[in-house]
# Entry
Amino acid sequence: MSKSKRLMELMMTVNRIRKFTVRQLADQFDVSPRTILRDLQELSELGVPLYSEVGPHGGYQVLKERILPPIAFSEEEAVAMFFASHALRHYLFLPFEAESSTALQKFYYYMPGDVRDRIDQMKNRVDFLTHTRQQKAEYLGVLLEASVDQRVVTMQYETKNGYSERTIQPVGIYASNGFWYCPAYCFLRRDFRLFRCDRMQSVANDSTGIEPLDHRHIHLGNWEEHGSEKPVYIRMIVDLSREGVRRCESELWHVPHMDITPDGSGQLNQNVPSSELMYFAKFFIGLGNEATVKEPSELVECMKGILNEIMAKYD
# Structure
């Protein structure tokens, strides 16, 4: 085996097993321990973070922040990866903000000149826009790690009535309409709740000794199904103009099912949680004549009440 091939396989091996001895590697690669020591020195100089321990149980260990082995990308794959990371720049806060910036720089720096020129031309011709919010969401990384590791955290949370301390076990985090959200099990309410990450004033590992629950089977796709408070649904029917369809598709969170006609107009006809009637009332008022609510009557009355308050304000 050539030295370059051995170094490549050695890099992949140490990244996979993470803890090893020189003798184990020497036996595996059928070379002398002296050769393995020289190879490990070269890997260390290339940036693989190796840590050595002495003693009867010693050996080498790859630190947590280990370097992944080289991966061969085609030109199209590299450009796609670059723009996938480039699209995240519209978010002021990310759970891996520094890492995504570094990855983007590496992709760009190590590409051939003609590929960099192509990317420079594409930067002004393709984008993935999202709302830019000024609210801070500083604890995304902590929340994400807690959800993966099944840990309990304590936070100071801003509500309409002031601040409250909550102990939660995060399910995960997701971004929607420029905001970051964290569904979590709340030990105060003994149920799942959805929290806005920008309203979290502090987040730290819990020190009260609350044992985490086994929520490994619960994730962003099914957490609502595990809540004890089952939502009450109500049928919503709304006629939409062509512009109304476009606005619903671009602005509605969790876009309901729409039947689209050949001329581009359409109709919403779906069960929605009754707890969200106020949200839909304000949204459809904003659409003006582009939307006509047919059902439910509770939604129509809610819209009338909001409009009456607006008229009284300006009367």
